[in-house]
Specification:
Largest sheet of chain A: 16 strands, antiparallel, barrel
Helix content of chain A: under 10%
Number of strands of chain A: 26
Number of domains of chain A: 1
Strand order of the largest sheet of chain A: 4-5-6-7-8-9-10-11-13-18-19-20-23-24-25-26
Strand content of chain A: over 45%
Order of helices and strands of chain A: EEEEEEEEHHEEEEEEEEEEEEEEEEEE
Number of helices of chain A: 2
CATH architecture of chain A: Beta Barrel
Structural class of chain A: mainly beta
Shape of chain A: globular
CATH class of chain A: Mainly Beta
CATH topology of chain A: Porin
Oligomer: homotrimer
């Protein structure tokens, strides 16, 4: 059967499926002229991934994918898994267990990029071992990690856990989650938190703590979401406390967002399963007598990187998106964002660091 | 069905096919000894590509391929496409619409490398959007591009168009084409045009304009070709005018070639479709009672990089090739070239810059 | 049919199979504290490979695989092959014909890493042409190579040959082999021989000749092995003589090992075919009513890098491993090693260079 690419199955539990995705982004970033930032037009092959996944008799499985966007190689998932009953064990490199927004595939987000805090707080895939327990409406996940294989360290490590409760009440899917993360950085190293204005085709980060010495990070987050017919909503908050050897007080930074979405097309609903959002499958796709699904979304995206003497700046982002999925595996997305910054790192000619940046971005996407 | 690799099809318009090619080159380059160039024996994994292509219901498709020759990663095609009737729209990275020789796959060329001007004038894949219209004997192509994703710039851009008329007269396939290209380089940057002697396993470019400041390039080309039974012929000319901010006159460089080929084996003919040469499928392949197809080709390859005060040198190349295709997806190629240079960049001990370089190259190739 | 991944076949001799492997290693290295080496805990994505192989009508075939571990790209095999009767010709990049241990896939070794001399003496894949003749119990292999495509040189070259006699005596598979290798290094360059303590997740090489000028290497090796029911054994010796332009005498270094293994699980035996060890297929796999195969192995691993005035150090390694294969395509391995060094390159605080290093390593592996 085709799931974008063909999934080939064999007797006894064998399966194999090629995987891939292409995302092409373009748009504009407009900051106050005198900051000499923003740059106007930009474009980017955002993701260009190719990989495979499969199952084997006995409960074993694998998922292995690389990203080659801009002809730079990065391994994304490299997972050996074993499933027995309600428990799955994973070894290799994969996403750590934190944040509904982060764990939702980049194919299925409502905006061109995820909420600001996920990048700002360096959510990346790391090498380690994880365990997932799922039964009915409850899911518990936990793992121990070293670092991303691109910069594999034997000195840094982290442990994290996530709990999700996802009851269905009538026709409404609810989602409640919480996550805790502890990470010890390599001795003598520093941390830095910073973020771009919504789109990835600019390299200007208007808010940025700069590097500072740290020993460890302790983080916790809360997640809430619902899917009800054409509507969905999500809200998350995430706090990062940094243990700093040199400073009088340890700063706690915050990021979070709230979003609401609605399908203009009848019969369409946002996919959800396994503690994260999934694929939207248009009720009436192009090629099957329809025009696909059309969804509008609004989001407020907050990031506060100023605390305890560190002035990294704050962002209040107001975003609108229009997501058109002609078919299950294709997407066109347009979004506009207005980012109100305080204490931005690039001052205007008059020394002002409180200003707005406007961004507009479109994405063409196919996956298989 | 197998087309090198299996093409898997599903109901409703689904298809999926892995893709790949391996090319191993070896040979000799002999320049006058006192130039200290040429280097004698050389060898190279010329191309090592792996990728996928597929179709989806609703008219969508993709092609995604990477080249890993010499363990360097380069994305070649990364295309999201949509086809409706006679029109196809493409987004991503792909070959710009210029030159029969450039658009013909590197699997199906008559010589080990394409005509000198295609490299010299920096024909590369670029990120952008393209439209193709094809109906009957006419094809029209146009696109707007930024740059190759390896060095993606938001400052350079180009636009180009190509028209092809390809009537079949009796048993003879004719091809007439024309192309126009305008490219604005990134402000403050330079251009350079240069070329190796036929083979890629040497790094010596005997003709070379060196870097010089430029604002834009305007180029136009003409194409002619025929395929008639065992014979085929092709001739192209391409002019590049460079808008230079610093020089009194803007130089116009020229490249072009004329080739003639003939199959020694009965029943063989050169593939042609969609405005470019295609795959040769031997009438009597190895493994099916035959020896495959054997073709001889002769080419004159001209490149003139001297104009308006820039002395990049000129090349008059005389090439012969023997192409043996044991089967549809395998090839062995041998070719000899004599390159007469004027104003070459490497003088001999006596200061002479007008001399000949001899090259001999063989290729082993498989694709799927 | 599934061989890890599905092998797709077509009429006339077509076949196609995706290929891949993931290996995740972790463990400890303990050296005397005052050497400031060893580093304690380490972990590593040892191999992350993806590729394809296939056959074509007429006797042609290909194998093409890349390794992306740690997000570094390296092409492993890139082979175009042609088979006619008992003879196979290969062109591209592949393993040179030397050492049972080296030619046995990294999926099927008895320990986490191969014998010390295989790395120390720089056994790598190289670009070239090879011929293999196999008939009955005899196999003869020979090839001419340039270098690995990652650093492809047109100045270095090597030629090598290997002969294997592999009779079956009753139920016992015997293996006898010999290999000769001559390699000319690029003019003006140096060689260096060194090795880690058993595991790859440390970068400390305790024995190391350092770089020294060389013109060529002449090497020869002998191989012996048997597989008999649950038992297997192997012993190899390999001598490398270095032609040095600057030294009074040319050094000859030596490496070798002897190993013995036994399956604790009934009905299991070590795979062997084509002059090398193959895949262990558990008689009673997980998911089919069994626990898979469990094997214990012991090895002595010798490497002597001191001769003719060069004091690179010597290693006497004593290793034990436990190899658990739950299923044909999955493996968990644990091994312990004690490495007695003489003339190690990292002295202790008291200047001692004769000491022991302990290592413990585990591996999780899946392939397809």
């Amino acid at each position: 059967a085709f799931k974008g690419a063909p999934e080939i199955k064999g007797k006894g539990g064998w399966s194999f499926k090629p995987r891939g995705r292409l995302q092409y982004d373009a748009g504009f970033v407009n900051a106050p002229d005198s900051t000499n930032r923003g740059g106007g037009f930009g474009n980017d092959i955002r993701r260009a991934r190719l990989g495979v996944s499969g199952d084997m008799p006995g409960g074993f499985g694998y998922k292995f994918e690389v990203d080659v966007a801009n002809s730079d190689l990065a391994v994304t998932d490299a997972i050996i898994s074993y499933e027995a009953g309600d428990v799955e064990i994973m070894v290799g490199q994969f996403n750590n267990f934190q944040s509904l927004e982060e764990l939702t595939s980049s194919l299925h987000t409502s905006f061109i990029e995820r909420a600001a805090y996920t990048d700002a707080f360096n959510f990346i895939r790391r090498v380690g071992i994880g365990v997932e327990y799922g039964s009915g409406d409850v899911m518990v996940q936990g793992g121990i990690f070293t670092d991303n294989m691109d910069r594999l360290s034997n000195d840094a490590w982290s442990a994290n856990g996530r709990v999700v409760y996802m009851p269905k009440v009538g026709d409404t899917q609810l989602h409640f989650g919480g996550t805790v993360n502890y990470r010890e950085v390599a001795p003598g190293s520093t941390v830095r938190y910073r973020q771009r204005p919504l789109v990835a085709f600019t390299s200007d980060r208007f808010i940025n703590t700069g590097n500072f010495a740290a020993e460890s990070e302790f983080s916790y987050g809360v997640e809430g979401a619902f899917v009800s017919g054409r509507f969905h909503g999500a809200v998350e908050g995430y706090w990062r406390n940094v243990n700093t050897p040199m400073m009088a007080a340890d700063p706690t930074f915050f990021g979070g967002y709230a979003e609401l979405g609605y399908y203009l097309t009848k019969g369409d609903t946002r996919g959800y399963s396994g503690g994260k959002f999934g694929r939207t499958k248009p009720a009436n796709a192009v090629g099957a007598g329809g025009i696909g699904s059309v969804q509008i979304n609004a989001r407020y995206d907050r990031l506060d990187l100023s605390d305890a003497g560190i002035i990294g700046g704050t962002q209040n982002g107001y975003f609108l998106s229009l997501v058109w999925k002609p078919t299950d595996y294709t997407m066109l997305l347009a979004n506009y964002g207005k980012l109100d910054y305080s204490n931005a790192v690039f001052p205007t000619a008059t020394g002002d660091t409180d200003y707005s940046v406007d961004v507009f971005g479109v994405r063409a996407q196919i996956d298989f």
